[in-house]
Amino acid sequence: MSNEPIGPDAVLEKKKRHLIPCVYHFYADPPQIVRGEGVHVYDTQGRGYLDLYSGVSVHALGHCHPEVADAICRQVRTLQHTTTIYLTEPIVNLAEALASVLPGQIGRTFFCASGSEANEGAALLAALHTGRSEFLAFQNGLHGRTKLAMSLTGLAFWRTDPDPVGGITLVPHPTCSACPVGRTFGSCSYECVQAVENAINTSTSGRPAAMFVEPIQGNGGICVAPPEYFPRLRELLDRYDMLLIADEVQTGFGRTGRMFAMDHWSVAPDIVTGGKALGGGTPIGFFATTDEIAASYTRPGASTFGGNPVTAVAGLAMLRVLQRDRMVDRAEHLGQWLRQRLDAVGDRFECVREVRGLGLMLGMELDPVDDRTAAELTDAVLERMKDAGYLLGKTGPGRNVLTWMPPLIITEGELQGAIDALENVLETI
Ligand code: PMP
User: Fold this and answer.
1) Which residues line ligand 1 (CB under 6 A)?
2) CA-CA distances (angstroms) from residue 339 to 57, 107, 349?
3) Is the model's pTM score more than 0.90?
């Protein structure tokens, strides 16, 4: 068989014929990506694109990081797979490494193969530990594609299931610029936290097991809660003996300028779920908790590929490099720098409604312009940026938030090139 790429038209043709149509893609004129190196991906014409979305917050260290790739290749040639019914070392080493970075007293991990599975597992663990079965989650949140994870998701775009699981109450997310309770930050009394208590008392039995939160909403459009929200929420959940489950699938491992985004508010969740960046490009997911809560889950649990030697050594290499090269600090500083520049772009262009986020997880929400909806404008910007060699993301319930989640290894110079290109696109569009 030839190794020559078949090209985007042929890929699209096969995709149309053989993939389930729900597998959608960005761009009216999409390139076929054939190679990745550092902050760039390359298409069949050898054209490079600066990857500003990192495969949706996966490539913290960039594409094909040599130390991660070497660890994977060595392991693939030594022992790929046995599953957890046999003893292997990488899984326990990765759990030990995670325990040293996870917040609070969280030091026990169950590994699986995706973020959706991680959230399913976290819900099971919370139900086992509390003996309760109802859950709270945020409107505009996203927790995955499986039945329960989709039912916990508060975005119609990703909530395809017409018959979601019951016992789940979605509460408003406290995005101050669109305050769900009509207050103004600075003169409010965190009525958004009161709204959660009201929901517990009106829409549940009064005894839910837990609340799922994304510390910063990713697919919801990069929405950040106000400073005291999570400490106050923690106090509220404690009063109701509810667990706090932090879905750090997108925000974990330095993305927001802290190892875990919950660290911004010094709030320790009871359960943390993760995936994406940890695997260095290999499929991974996990939920982690305290000794006390873990003790409630003793019946056999197994994930065929969870913590398999290849993903585990990839995770170990990724964590080693992330810490050695001080990538979390880098995300914080570069993020502040990028934020200032994006704010300046926002000041220049009327179509930019708001810039928000933390670290290298930033969103730029667009407004409608003339006869174009905000979503149409976002698509047009995305396409033009791609043609100029820059791959941005797109999130938000209105699909109108340009999303910046570049590899943490990116430089100011590379980001400046992207900002210049964006200004060009916004000037001409
Ligand atoms: N939680 C969050 C916050 C996510 O962003 C995602 C995926 N975008 C998931 C869960 C689901 O992860 P996966 O696609 O690996 O199942």
Assistant:
1) 56, 114-116, 119, 142-145, 214, 218-219, 247, 249-250, 275, 285
2) 17, 33, 15
3) yes
